[in-house]
Specification:
It contains 12 helices and 10 strands. Helix 7 packs parallel to helix 8 and helix 10 (250-263) runs antiparallel to helix 11 (268-276). It is α/β, with parallel strands linked by helices. The protein has helices at residues 10-18, 38-48, 61-72, 91-101, 136-141, 154-159, 173-183, 213-227, 230-240, 250-263, 268-276, 282-295; strands at 2-3, 27-31, 52-56, 77-79, 86-87, 107-116, 119-123, 128-131, 151-153, 188-199. It folds into 2 domains: 2-209, Spore Coat Polysaccharide Biosynthesis Protein SpsA, Chain A (Alpha-Beta Complex); 229-295, no CATH class. Strands 4, 5, 6, 7, 8, 9 and 10 form a 7-stranded mixed sheet that branches. Strands 1-2-3 form a 3-stranded parallel sheet, sandwiched between helices.
Length: 296
């Protein structure tokens, strides 16, 4: 559980873990350099329940905090909960039972509820017995996994290097991880049970999806540069090329497209783009889009 200035809600979040009907858990709460009463609240729970453990780091954002907790964890499975959200009391009971019955699933996630003040609404996901690398394009279209819904094999996380700590990808570090896991051919399963409460409030980092476009773009960019075999590169570039029409991403998108075309051995198209169509003007944007669609 990463926690940064989370004093308003963290007690409820920790209590939702303590109230689990499944007793064999440890909760590692990472204080990400908080300046409010977050540390005091966590330590109060730590003194009354030895399964709760307090960790501290200088402010390093979500990915670094989650990795620190994973490194200090003892179990074979990892679940995630942010410091403003809650689990239903049967979450771990249901999910650990399913993972014990199905050894082929690397990551299990569920449906849940959204919580806005006292208003509760269904939070739906697509229920499916197996998601794998063949569904990569479905996940590139949208993030299908709420992080607080997840139970995942620790081994699978370590195999793909855990969460990115790249500052440009924070707030989409979980989405980036799901894509890495699919590239590594890990298997997901989604279930209809409603096992969490996702709190919606104005102080959360992704309130009304503000500021999420840039981290998602950088997540795709990172995968293109570092992780993706050819099977997945085409899916990613088909998504990224649409950013050429967004002034905020034009320059970075242009560089990605040129790099991708060079990677594909299409030397003429990058030359034409750099010489004739590098400016963020509508006619140039359409030309670049057409060139990468034809040759990419």
């Amino acid at each position: 559980m990463p926690a940064y200035n989370a004093a308003n809600y963290i007690a409820e979040s920790i209590e939702s873990v303590i109230n689990q009907s499944y007793p064999h858990w440890e909760l590692l709460v990472v204080d990400d350099g908080s300046t409010d009463d977050t540390a005091t609240i966590i330590k109060r729970f730590e003194t009354t329940d030895q399964r709760v453990k307090y960790l501290y780091q200088q402010n390093g954002r979500q990915g670094k905090a989650r990795n620190l907790a994973i490194q200090n964890s003892k179990g074979k499975y990892i679940a995630f909960l942010d410091a403003d959200d809650k689990w239903t009391s049967d979450k771990l009971t249901i999910q650990t039972k399913l993972t014990s019955e199905d050894k082929n699933t690397d990551l299990l996630f569920s449906q849940g509820y959204s919580l806005t003040n006292s208003q509760v609404e269904d939070y739906n996901v697509e229920v499916k017995t197996a998601w794998n690398s063949d569904n990569f394009a479905d996940f590139v279209q949208q993030n299908r996994i709420p992080i607080l819904a997840v139970l995942v094999k620790k081994e699978a996380l370590l195999q793909v290097g855990g969460f990115t700590e790249d500052a440009d990808i924070q707030n989409a570090e979980d989405y980036h991880l799901w894509l890495k896991l699919l590239i590594a051919d890990k298997v997901f399963k989604s279930i209809p049970d409603r096992l969490f409460y996702y709190r919606v409030h104005s102080n959360q980092s992704t309130f009304q999806n503000t500021g999420i476009a840039a981290p998602i773009f950088h997540a795709y960019s990172n995968l293109l540069k570092e992780h993706a075999p050819d099977k997945f590169r085409q899916v990613l570039i088909d998504k990224v090329k649409w950013y050429i029409f967004n002034q905020d991403f034009h320059s970075q998108c242009l560089n990605l497209i040129i790099s991708h075309l060079n990677y594909k051995g299409k030397k003429v198209a990058p030359f034409i783009i750099k010489k004739l169509f590098a400016k963020p003007e509508p006619i140039s944007q359409r030309a670049v889009f057409k060139l990468v669609s034809v040759f990419g």
